[in-house]
Amino acid sequence: MGMMQELRTVPNMLSILRLLLVPLFLVLILNGHFAWSFAVIALASATDWLDGQIARRFNQMTRLGQVLDPAADRLFIFATLIGLTINGNIPLWFAIVVASRDLMLLAVYPILATHGYGPLPVHFLGKAGTFSLLYALPLLLLADIWPAADFIVLPLAWGFAYWGIGLYWIAGLLYVKQVQELVFPRSK
């Protein structure tokens, strides 16, 4: 399948839509439009789920999709961290811990590329960590929209957040270990 054909698959178009929603979300959250930003992130989450379902069900998994989908997830997480940190919903340390894991992996990708490898498959712990963060961050935003429910929303949000950070980092370290074993195998 050529690049243009890959681009035209429904899952990839949904991933592109998610990428286009990132700046809209960021503008909305930074301008205090929390309900609208929550609606945008909910739509993005729905398209994330839907593109995966369609790709698997109709065998539309593509190499481009394997790059677009996680890129959209990472950009949404990053945009949400920026917005929630600036608005005071989350402490700066939280944003730094999550973002530094992605920066660590960003340093690993060129190593793979210089040795002729593309991105490695995503580990299920990475998916679980991303899933947890993609639940935690909108819930933290929901606390601004519905303060009366903080006693329910905030414990759920922070539970997902801490699990997300842990799983995210474990998966990141496993990824680095895989790269090390692939690129610098031990001789026996």
Order of helices and strands: HHHHHHH
Q: What structural category characterises the helix and strand content?
A: mainly alpha
CATH superfamily: CDP-alcohol phosphotransferase transmembrane (TM) domain
Distance between the termini: 40 Å
Number of distinct helices: 7
Rg calculated over all Cα atoms: 18 Å
Q: Which ranges are low-confidence, i.e. pLDDT below 50, for 5 or more consecutive residues?
A: none
Task: Give the DSSP E fraction (strand runs of 2 or more residues).
Answer: under 5%
Describe the main β-sheet briefly. none
Q: What number of structural domains do the residues give?
A: 1
- Helix fraction by DSSP (H/I, runs of at least 4): over 70%
CATH architecture: Up-down Bundle
| Count of beta strands | 0
Shape: globular
> What is the CATH topology?
Four Helix Bundle (Hemerythrin (Met), subunit A)
Q: Mean of the pLDDT scores?
A: 90
CATH class: Mainly Alpha
Description:
This protein has 7 helices and no strands. With about 190 residues, the chain is mainly α. Helix 2 packs antiparallel against helix 3, helix 2 runs parallel beside helix 4 and helix 3 runs antiparallel to helix 6. The longest helix has about 35 residues.
Describe the structure in brief.
The chain has 188 residues and is mainly alpha-helical. It is 81% helix and 0% strand.
